[in-house]
Amino acid sequence: xxxxxxxxxxxxxxxxxxxxxxxxxxxxxxxxxxxxxxxxxxxxxxxxxxxxxxxxxxxxxxxxxxxxxxxxxxxxxxxxxxxxxxxxxxxxxxxxxxxxxxxxxxxxxxxxxxxxxxxxxxxxxxxxxxxxxxxxxxxxxxxxxxxxxxxxxxxxxxxxxxxxxxxxxxxxxxxxxxxxxxxxxxxxxxxxxxxxxxxxx
Length: 201
Known about the structure:
By secondary structure, the protein is of the alpha+beta class. It has one domain: Chorismate lyase-like (Chorismate lyase, 3-Layer(aba) Sandwich). It is built from seven helices and nine strands; from the N terminus they run ββαααβαββααββββα.
């Protein structure tokens, strides 16, 4: 029997609770450039590929069934200790890490295609289905503790596909911030500094 788990390293759990704010609440604290990136509702992978002018690759950090974190279970309205499929990956360009991502899907709702994604981006599957809906985006200044990377802030939202709920969390890493700062974007009014793009009041 094939194991559901793929775990290249010890699975890491945050030692502190994350505080999430709706994008609309955090927006006044964001530069227009960061607000545009954090608030984009299109495929982040596709937008990153356009930014770097190349291919975005997926490095798997962990894939297995586990009990989600408390704030994840609450966001998905899951009963206590309900199992979910946890997938942690890092999106890279030419071995440079850009985004650390963690997705959580209730195990009894898990589509076979999501379990078998392998080194394909989850967004590639999500945005191929026109019936998928997405919740409002929330933000936190804390990074996901994936593979020791340090992030500039994290966003999350819940996707719905038929009876399946998928919580997707994406931390913007320092290299992504550097590339975005160099982007000749019409929204950018100020230089990016190596710090979290916003902090809760």
